Amino acid sequence: xxxxxxxxxxxxxxxxxxxxxxxxxxxxxxxxxxxxxxxxxxxxxxxxxxxxxxxxxxxxxxxxxxxxxxxxxxxxxxxxxxxxxxxxxxxxxxxxxxxxxxxxxxxxxxxxxxxxxxxxxxxxxxxxxxxxxxxxxxxxxxxxxxxxxxxxxxxxxxxxxxxxxxxxxxxxxxxxxxxxxxxxxxxxxxxxxxxxxxxxxxxxxxxxx
Length: 209
Prior knowledge:
There is one protein chain. This protein is mostly beta strands. It contains no helices and 17 strands. The chain has a 5-stranded parallel β-sheet, with no helix packed on it. A 4-stranded parallel β-sheet has the order 2-5-8-12, with no helix packed on it.
């Protein structure tokens, strides 16, 4: 499921409310893009799922090109690798890439299930970075993430659970950095190697089940 605005702007919100369960075989990505006319970076779209059964987001985007950039510079000057295809849910704000632009905030991710929440490829909300030559801007904030499994449900992240589920595979996901991640965007001047503005704050993460 993709709600990206290719003309520049916020990613569209995704709201799923059902009395039953939610099974999505691919990923959800709602990243914002830069508006070239205004210089305002789009926010990641908010993702809300409220289900009367289990929720399973069983895969991430199939290629790095589906989300802008294969490496995201993460929060407050700490450069960490986060492959874009590592996230079953990705709500990224747009990066600022030149003077006069402002990055977009990451979208919020809220999942409530009456049963298990299954995210083998995790969820990621990243604020956009302001990391370019001459940058004095600050990075944007990552969005809050809340995962709430009720009615005796469990929260599975980075793993395909075994029986009674039949995914064809079981156990830990290999080859990617997987987790529940909310990070602020980096800030800095790539040429002068100065700090520029401030790194963006990470969002709050709450998991219960």
